[in-house]
Amino acid sequence: MDYDTYGSTAVELAIDLANADREAGPEWATAFLRAHAEWLEPGTATELSADEAWRAAATADLVRAVALATAQPEVLERLNALLALAHPQPYATDHDGELHLHYARREAPALEQLTTTVAMGLAQVVAQHGWQRLGVCSAEGCDDVYVDTSRNASRRYCSNTCASRSTVAAYRARRREEDPAAAPGHPR
Ligand SMILES: [Zn+2]
Ligand SMILES: [Zn+2]
């Protein structure tokens, strides 16, 4: 499985949204939209009000909830709550040279474009490839979510950074077991 078969990579936007850092307060939403402007129709105003930022956060929480669900009834309930926020009005376009679908109407405000694209992108992947493709990072101290696009569904980490950090940590733990003198801080 790779992204080419999705016909859409909108699920990446959903994952990025779920993992977005919201500590900055309501401004996080505007910053997120500006960093992901390629997903919006050119000319869309990216300034969100505090209320809109709150609604974007609720969408982010629902994406995370779908990724964390461990049983299908849970997935359905959460995915449908997310889809209820969407206002899909799809159209086909080849603005980047390849024919693909956009899910939100062109003139929709930024929040509507975001919510609709995220909900439809996530729902499409879950329906086509299964909700088991969504997961949460196994690295210690990281709870970012991911979509597993590997052929054998073997992904466990949100990023290469977390994967190599965990590999190093496991290696060190193994060395400590084999040779306690190699433990950090142990007097040599
Ligand atoms: Zn496009
Ligand atoms: Zn991670």
From TrEMBL:
Residue stretches making up the Zinc finger CGNR domain: 133-175
Top-level taxon: Bacteria
InterPro entries, A to Z: ABATE (IPR010852), ABATE_dom_sf (IPR023286), Znf_CGNR (IPR021005)
PANTHER family associated with the record: BLL6575 PROTEIN
Protein name listed in UniProt: CGNR zinc finger domain-containing protein
Organism: Geodermatophilus pulveris
Taxonomic lineage from the root: Bacteria, Bacillati, Actinomycetota, Actinomycetes, Geodermatophilales
